[in-house]
């Protein structure tokens, strides 16, 4: 039986690391700090309006959430649609500028590059990530499952003991797979930079399953 884990997904972090630091201290310090926080957020929004560009650290490997067509340079997916609607409702005539990111480096981009306004691309909320960036409210829930080749004999969790599990680097599944390996529930782990690379490995049976 394939194990399904329900996880909360998030869409974007509205402010960058500097803004977050002020926001956190504003909860503890006096009104001057709170005022500084408000000004920072207003400055960022004003900067976006003046430039007419919103910079997104985007994980674009999933057509479902956030995807950029390399031929037309157009973005699509659930989160891209939401972002376009946000721009519309704010009354901004802004275009989306993509800064390609992966699950391994999107946090670094968001917290160190002041030109990045938000991050997007099917990003899970975790306690560790919440210490570094601010999340919106969860926008939707999704069920995740193990993917195996069509002719696979894997049907139960106990069948995984001799299997190599493929995961995308930097995702919550990488840590889960590491735990499974430490508990001797799987044979080994293979990591990949993107989701398409992972699925290609499953299709060519370089790995027995993907998570």
Automatic annotation (TrEMBL):
<feature type="domain" description="Solute-binding protein family 3/N-terminal">
    <location>
        <begin position="55"/>
        <end position="154"/>
    </location>
</feature>
<protein>
    <submittedName>
        <fullName>Polar amino acid transport system substrate-binding protein</fullName>
    </submittedName>
</protein>
<keyword id="KW-0732">Signal</keyword>
<dbReference type="InterPro" id="IPR001638">
    <property type="entry name" value="Solute-binding_3/MltF_N"/>
</dbReference>
<dbReference type="Pfam" id="PF00497">
    <property type="entry name" value="SBP_bac_3"/>
</dbReference>
């Amino acid at each position: 039986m394939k194990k399904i884990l329900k996880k909360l997904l998030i869409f974007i972090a509205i402010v960058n690391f500097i803004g977050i630091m002020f926001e956190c201290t504003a909860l503890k310090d006096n009104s001057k700090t709170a005022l500084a926080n408000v000004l920072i957020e207003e400055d960022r929004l004003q900067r976006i309006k003046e430039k007419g560009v919103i910079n997104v650290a985007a994980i674009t490997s999933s057509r479902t959430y956030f995807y950029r067509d390399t031929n037309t340079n157009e973005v699509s997916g659930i989160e891209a649609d939401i972002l376009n609607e946000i721009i519309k409702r704010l009354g901004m005539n802004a275009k989306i500028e993509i800064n390609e990111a992966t699950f391994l480096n999107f946090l670094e981009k968001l917290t160190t590059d002041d030109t990045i306004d938000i991050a997007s691309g099917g990003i899970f909320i975790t306690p560790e990530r919440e210490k570094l960036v601010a999340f919106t409210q969860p926008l939707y829930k999704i069920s995740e499952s193990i993917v195996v080749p069509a002719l696979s004999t894997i049907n139960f969790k106990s069948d995984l003991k001799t299997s190599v599990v493929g995961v995308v680097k930097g995702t919550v599944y990488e840590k889960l797979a590491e735990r499974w390996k430490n508990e001797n529930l799987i044979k080994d782990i293979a990591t990949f930079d993107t989701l398409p690379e992972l699925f290609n490995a499953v299709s060519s049976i370089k790995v027995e399953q993907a998570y």
